[in-house]
TrEMBL record:
Any one GO molecular function term: protein disulfide isomerase activity
Region (Disordered): 365-394
Organism: Trepomonas sp. PC1
Cited InterPro entries: Thioredoxin-like_sf, Thioredoxin_CS, Thioredoxin_domain
Protein name, entry field: protein disulfide-isomerase
């Protein structure tokens, strides 16, 4: 039997998710959605025990609002009354493997060696162990929202406790399992490296960890001792997420934060306002860091006025939209990621002083321009996919 992606509507959505179902929430003008389409088609032919479906949010927006969809494409797996966001690579093998794991119990008894191998396979720096003598099924409900997002196993022990093993460091969860915010932060911080070098692939995870995000910006090929000193500070302080930023590569991003090529500390709040602050490193990075973070904790720092272009004129407006769409549909530069993230936050937070409007019609227009450029490639992918289906039918 040849399987295919099922298109859902307002009328068919609720019935479809009663079974194990992976649903793609998309918009036809979204470049990443079009890029995913042929892979998603292939996934539907390889997975037979899960409904592979999609719903067009530009048509059935009430369903997408109900599911709190904030970006496209979003992949959600509906299983046994719960739903889980897929956040991995959008390749057929990875999506298929994730679906298989999601149908298994949250906790299975695993040795440290098995968990280390699973962490390496998932390209994460750490894994988690639930030590307990209690029945594992009683923890399923408490931890279900973390299913598929962390590498975790169970081991027998008299005392029930949750432990993270991150870069050879053992971290014990010290709060109650009913404290959801504490669990969120514990899992978030212990799946990230202690002090990675920022790039476009890890920037969003660092930015949205739920902790203040502290960066040392410097020429990383020159300031070797300063980097090590900053890494030592990061290892001693788990109140913040830390990272190194190469000032010779991400010049546009540093300009947006009104920084220079000189060694500088930046911190971005984890609160709703998510303001940014900076401090030029003078003398020891330890002394600068300690004073800077003391003032940050006390709330006495002046925030940076982020340099986001105001679309007051038609040309400026178009330029802003093109910049955002380049980041979304084209090369995902660090400046592009931050520009989109910051602009969206401003819109949602009601920062009217920036004169940024959610210009949906014009965003779609720019997206259509991109679509015209990519259409020939898309047609070739469709033809290849159809040929493959015909071969499978034969």
């Amino acid at each position: 039997v040849l399987h295919e992606v099922i298109s859902l509507t307002n009328e068919t959505f609720d019935e479809a998710i009663q079974k194990p179902a992976l649903v793609k929430f998309f918009a036809p003008w979204c470049g990443h959605c079009r890029e995913l389409a042929p892979k998603y088609d292939n996934l539907s032919t390889e997975v037979t025990d899960v409904v592979i479906a999609e719903i067009d949010c530009s048509v059935f927006d009430s369903i997408c609002d109900q599911q709190a969809i904030e970006g496209f494409p979003t992949l959600k797996f509906f299983f046994e009354g719960s739903n889980y966001n897929y956040q991995g690579n959008r390749e057929v093998a990875e999506m298929k493997s994730w679906l298989q794991k999601m149908k298994l119990p949250m906790f299975e008894e695993k040795s440290d060696e098995e968990l280390k191998a699973m962490a390496n396979e998932s390209n994460v720096v750490g894994y988690f162990v639930l030590y307990t003598n209690e029945p594992l099924s009683q923890f399923e409900e408490t931890f279900k929202d973390f299913k598929g997002t962390v590498v975790i196993g169970a081991q027998k022990a008299e005392k029930t406790e949750l432990v993270a093993f991150r870069e050879s460091k053992k971290v014990v969860f010290g709060d109650d399992f009913t404290d959801r915010e504490a669990l969120d932060k514990f899992f978030a911080v212990n799946t990230l490296p202690t002090c990675p070098v920022v790039d476009a692939r890890n920037f969003q995870a660092l930015l949205m960890s739920g902790f203040p995000f502290v960066m040392l910006s410097a020429n990383l090929s020159e300031h070797i001792e300063m980097q090590q000193e900053f890494k030592d500070l990061a290892a001693q302080n788990d109140k913040y997420v830390h990272a190194l930023l190469d000032s010779t590569i991400f010049t546009r991003f540093i300009e947006m934060l009104k920084g220079t090529q000189e060694p500088t500390l930046f911190v971005i709040e984890a609160s709703e306002s998510q303001r940014a602050f900076s401090r030029l490193v003078t003398g020891s990075v330890t002394e600068t860091y300690q004073q800077f973070m003391k003032e940050f904790d006390e709330g006495t720092l002046e925030p940076i006025e982020i340099q986001v272009e105001e679309p007051q004129e038609e040309n400026g407006k178009r330029k802003m939209i093109k910049m955002i769409n380049t980041a979304i549909f084209g090369g995902l530069t660090l400046a592009g990621v931050f520009a989109v993230w910051f602009a969206c936050k401003c819109i949602r937070s009601g920062h009217k002083e920036l004169n940024i409007e959610p210009l949906e019609a014009e965003v779609k227009e720019v997206a259509e321009e991109k679509k015209e450029e990519e259409e020939p490639k898309q047609e070739q992918e469709v033809e290849k996919n159809e040929e493959k289906k015909e071969q499978e039918q034969d």
